[in-house]
Design brief:
Layout: E1 20-23, E2 32-39, E3 44-47, E4 52-57, E5 68-73, E6 76-77, E7 81-85, E8 90-92, E9 94-99, E10 102-107
Antiparallel strand pairs: 1-2, 1-7, 2-3, 3-6, 4-5, 7-8, 9-10
Bound molecules: zinc ion.
Residues 85, 87-88, 92, 107, 109-110, 112 line the site of zinc ion (ZN).
Length: 116
Amino acid sequence: MKNKKKPVEKHDLHVKTGDRVILTSGKDKGKIGNVKKVIASENKVIVEGANMITKAQKPNPMAGIQGGLNKIEAAVDSSKVMVYCTSCEKATRIKHDIVDGKKVRVCKKCGEQIDA
Ligand SMILES: [Zn+2]
């Protein structure tokens, strides 16, 4: 018997696609990369060049896919990444601020805007 998939509570993640983040745990701890994808339903993110796994790719000549081993980024739990502030060069928390009537995210440490 198959278990029904539990609905995952949706959260607003503290990071979004394109953010520069630093990994705070795991084998890539300390690694900095850009968020390639946010999987909000799983609270996970894919960070460029981080948490690489090797996946076997079956050849599929019809689709022009060569078989072999591919290195791809595996999703990382969003709790394991922090926004990396390029201004103070530290992992930081963000706060929301209103600048010129626009909601922006700023570094809690130095006050620089995260969204360029
Ligand atoms: Zn900062």
